[in-house]
Amino acid sequence: MSAALLYRLKPAVSAATRLWSCKPPQILPTSAAFIHRRPASARLYSGLMATGAPLFRQLFESESSTYTYLLADTDTKEAVLIDPVLETVDRDLKLIDELGLTLKVALNTHCHADHITGTGLLKKKVFGLKSAISKHSGATADIQLSEGDRITFGKHFLTVRETPGHTDGCLTYVTNDERMAFTGDALLIRGCGRTDFQQGSPHKLYESVHKKIFSLPGHCFLYPAHDYKGQTVSTVDEEKKFNPRLTKTLDEFVNIMNNLNLPKPKKIDISVPANLLSCQREECCPETSCTPKTLHTDMPRHNMETQRSQWEPVRSSPWIMRVEQSPASSGAESDTEGSSTESERHRVKQADRDLLMSPSMLQQRITELDQQREELKIELQLEVALLRGELKAEQERLRRHTDQLQVLQEKDRQRRSNRLASRQKERVQLEQQRLKVEEMKRRCEEMEKQIPSQPEDQREQLMLRLQQEKDVLEATVRAFEDMEFHILELESGVEDEREGEDGESQTVIEREITRVQHTCNASQERVQQLENQLKEMEKEKDKALSSLRQEKKELLHKSQRILKEKKPLSDWSNITGSTPCVMSHSPLTIHKAAQESLKDSSSLPRRRSAHRKITDRPLSAQVLVRMTPDRQTSEALSPRLPHPTHRLSNGHCNGLRSAEQSDGNGLHTPCNSTSTSRAPSPQSLLDLVEMERKLREAKAERERLLKEREERQRLLAEQRRRKEQESVRIQTDASKLETHAEERLQIHSTHKNIEQGVPLSLTVNFDLRAHVESLGHNVAGCMGVNLSGRRCGGFLTKRGGRVKTWRRRWFIFDLDHQRLAYYTELDEKKLKGVIYFQAIEEVYYDHLRTATTSPRPSLTFCVKTYERLFFLVAHSPEAMRIWMDVIVTATDEHSRY
Ligand SMILES: N[C@@H](CCC(=O)N[C@@H](CSS)C(=O)NCC(=O)O)C(=O)O
């Protein structure tokens, strides 16, 4: 099985397969796993490969009327997303997560003019995701596509057909069975993309559609990038018959297209620049493979592997990574994540080393700086565009919440004023009732007064009437009292809990208002935060760019100085016929032989004879050697330069040995004191000492970690031994025989797996909590870390990949899904990123590298994946130790110790 295939299958592989492919990234260039070119003859095979249709979803973004398409292999779960939109990235990711898919590639049919693509944001959120777009689009992306390329997901693939016309970089993606084609804006349902901007050409479009789309089988379903009328799908046959533009002759078509008179897309001015960057490449990561990645995308694909392998040693040794890079490399210097103080310090040291470089190295470094600046600019611009997108989405959310709040408040106001009106009406009625009662009382009193003065025969009748009046009065008084009590009740608020006319209680509305108000406040805060971040980002962008500009300026200056300084040297050597031995103070630097520098520096004055003379001489004379206390270190520091002793043969300088003898402190002394051209500056010597001290510290730290690991290993072995003893004891108990046989099997399989080098996390019966407890952690006593047999959850503060802000995230280490995922909140609704176990290489304490930026330097640790470094901060020392021991179970390395 080829390495490429293995890597592609990784997410679904069994433990055994994983054994074969435990270091896939070292084998494969990033894009090669998903795309390969094929000869035209290979077409014959398409259609035969697929068994069963891929999973397919059509998703819609209503603001720009854009369709996003999700395709996946139902077996391997590998997925691709076509034309994602910035605003709907979270929706798409939620669906992908719900369907248990692994998003591999985000494709664009072209550089859109009406909306910002979601590719950039997706790449930030989905670890390892690759972006792809046409190589003719002018946009940056991990994969630059052209005619005939294939994007593979599981057993399916999409074939690329170039369909220019709407833009130069328009692509149509066709499924391997030619049952579906994703036409982008080349062909819309009963229409087509406009041709009046972005290199649009009606002639090209007409040809593209007729040759590349109408040549597909008639039943082939066509899925466009937009529809403005609610249509979702068409077929080749339908469009051939009914497309009002493309059924016409070429001339008629051109005429139609040139007279569409459509208004410009509203967002064209921000979308196009953002999209030219948004499919951008991998995140830069200084400690891993920033430079190779950058090279990958810029170089022909067949070169990728060679370039990467050149960098492998650098990646495998985190302790010496920063000093190990040769001055000419751009790894550490391109650190967009490192703290500014750190990079500043580094820059100064770098500048010192630059002083000792040859002009050609300086030139190379300057070119690299230019490249870095360009890349950084693109990255930062993208970051700004993404932040703007996020800000806009948040502002939109805030607007919606504010509207909702206003509606609720209006409703509340209405309800209150209705209530007030009805209270007043009731009060008036009560007053009327009161007057009525008083009037009735008065009447009764008058009657009572009249009765004694009435004749005997009428008195009886009057008394009867009086009694009747009194009865009515009594009833009226009762009604009045009831009414009065009811009003008092209403006024004291007892009624509030009762249902209102529209079925909603006042308290419910008030609660709702409070809730929405709360959401509004949170949204407002977030908007404020984003605005600040945006400002900071802009500042950071200017700072980073100006720092690179400054570095370049300094280098240019130094390069001129060096050229000037080298001139007298070469002149001198021409006169004496020998080159002087010059003292160097850098452990990293071995000066190039004189003829090399002459060759490199075209500006140096040279005489024909002088040049010949120098090349006749042995190479050793100008070699500068500075012995470090540890020779191995010295070698490690300058791995790509030839060893100095190879050059030491000239009589002027008696080689390494004599140099060592001549200077007890390890510095080479000049062979001829009069020929010393440059003495080490005290600052550089201090830097050197500092560098050596750091190396020693790093070594000691490594020793300590190894010991710690051994100790852990010992505890683990002890635990295992105890388990075995226990299982033997239990064996004797016949009633529990079955259970324990199973347990033994489990222990056995764990041992077997460990022996075979399978990461612990892959063993089926692995109990994460038991394992962590066996390492001596008090899991129950560690607040904020929720550890079970298969999962570990808790808040960690994570440093952003490009924007170096530290954010609290909810992390889930999940054995069943074989991934470390992080979310905005513990409700696990908003997935922010995923690190698959197979990508994790190492977990280690940060050793205060982020001391100046981390919110808690002493609680900061690193998770190193093959592509980048994640800096994480725990809330307590115990939590940090637990998290490190949890995550390390996902590494291959863990199984070996
Ligand atoms: N009103 C929309 C833009 C509408 C538009 O121009 N659509 C483009 C595709 S997106 S660049 C198009 O080609 N339309 C062809 C047609 O016939 O409608 C906005 O403001 O975003």
TrEMBL record:
Keywords: Acetylation, Coiled coil, Dioxygenase, Iron, Metal-binding, Mitochondrion, Oxidoreductase, Transit peptide. Residues 659-684 have a biased composition (Polar residues). GO terms for biological process: glutathione metabolic process. PROSITE patterns: PH_DOMAIN. GO terms for molecular function: metal ion binding; sulfur dioxygenase activity. Residues 605-614 have a biased composition (Basic residues). Residues 366-483, 513-565 form a coiled coil. Homodimer. Monomer. Interacts with TST. May interact with RELA. This is Persulfide dioxygenase ETHE1, mitochondrial. It comes from Cirrhinus molitorella (mud carp).
